[in-house]
Fold:
Amino acid sequence: MAGLHLVTGGAGFIGSHLVEALLAAGRPVRVFDNLSTGLRTNVPAGVEFVEGCLTDPAAVARAVAGCEVVFHLAALASVAKSVEDPGLNHAVNATGTLHVLDAARNAGVRRLVYAGSASAYGGADDPAGQGEDTPLCALSPYAAAKLAGEFYCQAFAASYRLETVRLRFFNVFGPLQRPDSPYSGVIAIFSAMLAAGRVPSVHGDGLQSRDFVAVEDVARALILAADTPGVSGRVFNVGTGRSVTLLQLLDTLNSQLGTSVVPTHGPARAGDIRHSRAKIERITAELGFVPKVSFEEGLRRTLAWS
Ligand code: UD2
Structure:
């Protein structure tokens, strides 16, 4: 029987898809979440739920005790919010990650999988996209704290008997992503607004581009990162290798909804990166990950949910 799998942030958007995939694979699951943005109703009946904050080491240690694998997804996920409150961003995303790692080594966890971020590349403007060896550049406190978490993962794999694997998520989208905050993901916001007949606002010219990866694919990548032997200490991009601009995103949403909404434009957002696209050769070669859900299919699923 598989050991216990902890999902921090398991009541949130990516976490709840991961929990569903783990349960479908017959794995025992525990969720740790403070319900700041996650929802209790996202946690399926029968899954053990520990409510607590990453900033509370004792609560983290209780959640990690007895686990074989830890997926560390809990975070303040917003670039804009980190610009407004860098101290809180650091406490949760950097120090909180240290708490999870420390609890994991003390509890004898086999492997920790960390949700890092493509913001690590600072939108390096390479037409070939960003590979794991692209120079790192933090343009926001969010990027800085997520990178600090990455370095702690690397250091713990080198210093202790704890395996760690870091993933750098590009822009994850899909059902369950909340649209109800200015800090929500752009696809969640735009889908909900267009579906409600409202006019979305684009920050800047709309020609910034992102590699949007479907959440169901991200859940598969997380499980591969936990299961594949011999990859402790490695870092992998999780994206599709394709990018679209915000204006192309709006065109596709308009065509799927049969609408022709023209957005308004406001000032560009502080801390924003310009272009982001994953090189995914490494994760394909070493973890066998190939994205399966196309951008169009992912948008259809998102619109059907919203
Ligand atoms: C996403 C992730 C972040 C991190 C990063 C990695 C979310 C919410 N955040 O940040 O956690 O992993 O990717 O690079 O998924 N925009 C508008 N209008 C709106 C909302 C957004 O124009 O109403 C723009 C925004 O200024 C940005 C783009 O859309 O240029 C994407 O914004 P986002 O907040 O969805 O994601 P991002 O790339 O800042």
In short: The first strand starts at residue 4 and ends at 8. The radius of gyration is 18 Å. The longest helix spans residues 86-107.
